[in-house]
Structure formats: C-alpha cells, structure tokens
Amino acid sequence: MTTLISVNNKSDIYSKYQNTPIAELLEYQNLNKPFEKVDHAKIVVGMCMDNRKSLRIPENFAYVLRSGGGNLRNLEFCVSYAVAVGGVKAIALIGHNYCGMVNLAAKEEKFVNGLVAAGWEYQAAVDHYKHFAPHYEICNELDFLQTETKRLRDRYPKILVAPLMYQLEDNRLYLLDEDR
Predict the structure, then answer these.
(1) How would you class 32 by CB atoms within 10 Å of its CB: exposed for 0-12, middle for 13-18, buried for 19 or more?
(2) N or C: which end of the chain has fewer CB within 10 A?
(3) Which residues of 1-21 are buried (b: 16+ CB within 10 A; e: fewer)?
C-alpha cells in the first residue's frame, strides 16, 4: 500500500527534489511561498482535467497539461515540446483522489446518455465510449500515477519526473512514500 507523505515544511521535501521546480511547486501549493516573477516555464505539470483541482503557482511557472486521469500519452508531443523547445527540466505528474476515470465501465450508460442528450446519435455515442474509455480508464489513482511516472522517466531519462498526489479535502500536494 502506498503511503502519502505530507509536505508541511521545506524539510519534508525529498532531497532529490530540493532546489528544483518540483520543490518550488510544493512550496507554492502547500507552504504559501510568495510568488516570484517567472520569465519562462520551469516545469511541465500533468494533471487531471477535473474541475475540483487548482494549483497555486505564479504566471509563466509551468506548462500545465490537463487530461482525463492525468494521462499524458495523447499529450506526449506537448511534453516533448516543453522539454525540447521550452527547456524544462522537470515534470510533475499529479494524480488526485476520487478521480472520475476510475471505474469508467460503471459510467458507460451515463456517458452515452449524456452524449445523446447533447445531440449525438446513440450508436455513435456507444462507439465513441468503447473506442476511448479503455485508453482513459485507470484502475486506481495511485497505481496509474506510479505506472505513468515510470513511463515518463523511461521516455525522458534526463528529466526529473515526480509523482504527486492532490487531495481534494485539503487542496494540498503529497509525495508518494516509495519515491524516496
């Protein structure tokens, strides 16, 4: 079982993240670090499209990529752009609790009916769901976060990739214990 590590002060941040954009992100979000002027992005933040999450970061600090479940597979070109052209040296992959991409199978009827109500033909809505749901379904938030972090680390071996968990109850970011 993965344990989440609370970041309540700078010393709680793992040493490998100290003095990096990952530490700055944690300090802005959890420690209310005052905003500094930022001229260019320092980090890619990949996170879920969920509207219940909001990051406290200064303008220009991050390329923020949002997709269902925080899945960056379809946004990999954007990540590559931020790394190759934007010059970022870190990626924060942020999962969150109560993610709607968990157990998508239970939401199929609601999904299809919602598209039909929006004007879709029934069969087109079913086909759309069946085509894309397997790509976005995540078994659980922490397992997906760890798997996607490993994939990104393998894909960008010289870029610091940090898995973080956003808790909706307190709007804070947490470290994963096995990432020490």
Answers:
(1) exposed
(2) N
(3) ebebbebeeeeebbeebeebb
Tens digits of per-residue pLDDT, 26-64?
999 999 999 999 999 999 999 999 888 889 999 999 999
Candidates 113, 88, 112, 101; CA nearest to 49 is 101
Q: In this structure, which amino acid lies at residue 113?
A: N
Residue 118 CA from chain centroid, whole number: 28
Beta strands in 10-70 (DSSP E): 43-48, 62-67
For residue 52, give the amino acid letter. R
pLDDT in tens, 79-135: 999 999 999 999 999 999 988 899 989 999 999 999 999 999 999 999 999 999 998
Identity at 118, one-letter amino acid code: A
pLDDT at 68: 87
